[in-house]
Amino acid sequence: MLFAGAHAVKAQDVDDILKKHEKAMGGKEKWEKVKTMKFTGSLSIQGNDIPLTESIVLGKALRMDFSFMGMNGYQIVTTSGAWMVQPGQPKIDTVKDDMLKEMQKQLDVRADQELDYKSKGGKAEYVGIDSVDSNPCYKIKFTDKEGNVSTSYFDTKTYYLLRTESTVKQEDQEQEVAKSYKDFKVLPEGIVWPMSVTTTMGEIVFKTIDINPTLSEKLFIPQPPAAAGK
C-alpha cells in the first residue's frame, strides 16, 4: 500500500509542479498573447563577446544576426528550411537533415521552457529531487511523441526551469546537450524569461527583450551576404 501510494503522489506531483511552473512564467493566458519576440544581447565564447539580435515569429520563423571581428553573419530558420551565412563567407549554406529538425525546434519558444508539452503529445514523469548550482530542483523526464527523451530541473522554490539535458543525433552520432537558465526577469507584459542562457557554445546574456514587435516577412528570406541586414 505504501509503494502504491508513493507512485500516486509522484503522478500528482508532475502536474502540480508543471502548473506552478506555468504560473511562475506568467501564466497560459499571457503567453497566448505573445506572437513575436525580439532579443538583443551577446554570446560569450572563449573570451569573445559576439553581439547578436534574435527575431522570432512564434512557431513560424526565426532569424539571428551576429557579428564577429567586424564581419556580419546570420541564421534563418523557418518551417520549410534553414539557412546560414558565416561571417566573412560569400555564400548561403542550406541546413539539412537532422540538424534542420533540431534547429526548427527553436521556433517553439514556449517549448524551450516546457510550457506546452501536453499539446505536443508529450509525456512527463517525476524522477525525484536533484540540485542545480546548489538549488534544490524537481527532476522531471519528458518524452515527446517521437520518443525523444529530455530531463528538466525546476527550482523547488521559484518553479523556474534552471536546466535541461537531452541527447541530439547529428550525422549518425549522438551528442549530449545541456542548457542552463538564470537571471529570470518579469517583463512588462507579465511573462517571465531568463536573461542568461548557457549552452556548450557559451553564455548568451540578453540586454533587451521586446514582446510583439512588428517583424517584416522579408527578414526571414535568405539574402546574399552583401545584402544581409538591408
Overview of this protein structure:
With 230 residues, the protein is α+β, with helices and mostly antiparallel strands. The chain has a single domain, classed as Clam (outer membrane lipoprotein receptor (LolB), chain A), CATH 2.50.20. It is 17% helix and 47% strand. It contains four helices and 13 strands. It has a 13-stranded antiparallel beta sheet. Strand 12 and strand 13 form a beta hairpin. The protein is globular, with a radius of gyration of 19 Å. The N terminus is likely disordered.
Largest sheet: 13 strands, antiparallel
Binned, the helix content reads 10-25%
Mind telling me the CATH class?
Mainly Beta
The share of residues in extended strands comes to over 45%
CATH fold label:
outer membrane lipoprotein receptor (LolB), chain A
The low-pLDDT segments are: 1-9
Spell out the key features of this protein.
230 residues; alpha+beta; outer membrane lipoprotein receptor (LolB), chain A; 13-stranded antiparallel β-sheet; 13 strands; 17% helix; 47% strand; globular; disordered N terminus
Per-chain topology:
Elements: H1 2-24, H2 28-31, E1 36-45, E2 48-57, E3 61-68, E4 71-78, E5 82-85, E6 93-95, H3 97-104, H4 109-112, E7 123-132, E8 135-143, E9 149-155, E10 161-170, E11 173-186, E12 192-198, E13 203-211
Antiparallel strand pairs: 1-2, 1-13, 2-3, 3-4, 4-5, 5-6, 7-8, 8-9, 9-10, 10-11, 11-12, 12-13
